[in-house]
Amino acid sequence: MMVPLDQMGPPVINGGGGGGPGGGIGRGGGRAVAPTETSGGINTISIATVGGNASFQRTDDEYRNVLMRNTTVRKYAEDDSNGEASTCGRILIFLSWVLVVLTMPFSLLVCFKVVQEYERAVIFRLGRLVHGGAKGPGIFFILPCIDAYARVDLRTRTYDVPPQEVLTKDSVTVSVDAVVYYRVSNATVSIANVENAHHSTRLLAQTTLRNTMGTRHLHEILSERMTISGSMQLSLDEATEAWGIKVERVEIKDVRLPVQLQRAMAAEAEAAREARAKVIAAEGEQKASRALREASEVIGDSPAALQLRYLQTLNTISAEKNSTIVFPLPIDILTYFMKSKECYEASHSHS
Q1: 232 vs 203, 242, 324, CA distance in Å?
Q2: Stretch 159-171: mean pLDDT, rounded?
């Protein structure tokens, strides 16, 4: 059957109502209100009652108003429960103080705790954080039976990230490992906001290392380690701030390449060195030829310089203590015979 909107009360999630128009879901036979479908801005609502099911249609604004009233009812219910818990908590705290006074001085052995200079204590009283933040260093007081505390170490921890197989941006598989230095900056947040802050930070360091290396080329990973480490440190620090963790430093330890790639890179480097050596040798030969040409021009201008060069060469050979004797033959004699031969060939050609 169809029920008009003005005859339906606000749906109540928790509460013991009756079967009337304003009742909620309760023990005495109430009704359940739930949207079933939406079409053209109109919601169809199904109501489960004791006598059967009913449905009606209303606009989105009306449906939103119903939900707002429902939220208000839930808020009032939570406030009532908080008030009851506060009253019960005060009673338990009073009984705990009575127990401390009655068991004096033995209760002092249980109530007083000590944390070191590098530690802090996060206290929970009846499951809720105690105002004032973490306690320590030094001595602090807890109530028996209702207080629980957790020790948090503030010293810097070192995490050796296991080698991660990463596919670089230029499709090269490399194995990269790193070291992460971090510490707890807020003891209360590290206990209340995350189950295990250290384990979460370590897992995040592994994924961050893989993600960062996957966006880099191989030559960037090999030559820009400091830049990559800085970007990883900023990314980790921003992500772990909500956990009360401060990432102080990230260092990339080693980048392992496949054996075949190492051989290919070694061959490439060797070929490059050989090419540079050949270029250097060719440049030396070119400079030497120019120097020899200038020397030949000087010797050509002074025939006596050639004889002096002969004598210098003979002196150099004799200084090596060998049995070879070299007699330099003057080139002028050979020049005379060469000119005579040319004249003879010229006369025969004319005849």
Answers
A1: 14, 17, 74
A2: 89
**pLDDT, averaged across the chain:** 75
Q: Which strands, in side-by-side order, build the sheet including 128-129?
A: 128-129, 119-125, 147-153
> So what's the pLDDT on residue 336?
65
> pLDDT band at residue 10, thresholds of 50, 70 and 90?
very low
Q: Do residues 217 and 169 make contact, with C-beta atoms less than 8 angstroms apart?
A: yes
- Whether the CB-CB separation of 233 and 225 falls below 8 Å is answered with no
Q: Which residues contact 239 (CB under 8 A, 6 or more apart)?
A: 204, 208
**3-state DSSP call for residue 169?**
coil
135 within 8 A of 148, measured Cβ to Cβ? no
| Signed CA dihedral, 89, 93, 99, 102: sign only | negative
Query: What does DSSP assign to residue 2?
Result: B
Whole-angstrom distance, CA of residue 232 vs CA of residue 227: 9
3-state secondary structure of 153: strand
191 burial level (CB within 10 Å; 0-12, 13-18, 19+): buried
Beta strands in the chain (DSSP E): 32-39, 42-48, 53-59, 112-115, 119-125, 128-129, 138-141, 147-153, 157-167, 173-184, 245-256
What is the DSSP secondary structure assignment for residue 171, as one 8-state letter?
Answer: S
Q: Is 298 exposed, middle or buried (0-12, 13-18, 19+ CB in 10 A)?
A: exposed
pLDDT in tens, 113-144: 888 999 999 999 888 888 888 888 888 888 88
- Tens of pLDDT, residue by residue over 286-333, are 898 888 888 878 777 777 777 777 777 777 777 766 666 666 666 666
Q: Which two tokens stand for residue 105?
A: 């001085």
CA 247/CA 182 separation, integer angstroms: 4
DSSP line for 87-142: HHHHHHHHHHHHHHHHTTTTHHHHHEEEE-TTEEEEEEETTEEPTT--B-SEEEE-
**pLDDT tens-digit series, residues 29-85:** 444 444 444 444 444 444 444 444 444 444 555 655 655 555 554 544 445 545 555
Do 24 and 12 contact (CB within 8 A), yes or no? yes
